[in-house]
Amino acid sequence: MNPPLPQQIAAAAARLVVDDGLEYPAARHKAAQAFGGRRLRSSDLPRHEAIEDEVQAYLAAFHAETQALELRALRELALRWMTRLQAHRPHLAGAVWRGTATRHSAILIDLYCDDPKSAEIDLVNQGIDFDAAGDASGDAGPHAVLTVADRSPALQEQVTLHLLVHDLDDLRGALRPDARGRRWRGDLAALQRLLQEEQA
Fold this sequence. Notes:
Blueprint: H1 5-20, H2 24-34, H3 48-62, H4 67-84, E1 91-93, H5 94-98, E2 107-113, H6 118-125, E3 131-133, E4 144-152, E5 157-167, H7 171-174, E6 185-187, H8 188-199
Parallel strand pairs: 2-5
Antiparallel strand pairs: 1-2, 1-6, 3-4, 4-5
Helix pairs in contact: 1-2, 1-3, 4-8
């Protein structure tokens, strides 16, 4: 007997998260398309927590020997960038924060700025090349997504970082926990604690 449809979609999404480096919303959307797309009801779609459960199971089955080292390498690179961008209240998000990232994952860093253009100006002043995606529509989205690439010494390859620029006022809502009480993002001090716990 097949598992319930939301679980099947969550499992398919998990493979896309791990193997293709997609974030949960994009992976869920792509997986849902394979199971009927527009004909699906909202109740057929898995919550992000369900996808995360499937991601962890998939990692344990197929990436147990490499994932922890790859995750640490990405977190160390994120720490370097968050320190560099500390003036913009950086918060690590996505798979690198939640602990499910592999070398295929991009690093997502939310920036909470008084002036949405200040992060771009800072990158220009630091001589950092970046690509900018224009203003997102809707109050919930970032004003801009600034994409940079940096080499991870531990992984010996380029890693993509997406810097999502938000209004400072959005920070309070962004710190709400998920249904299990875990936060979807963490600041510089929280990331430092994670890295110290990994070494212990």
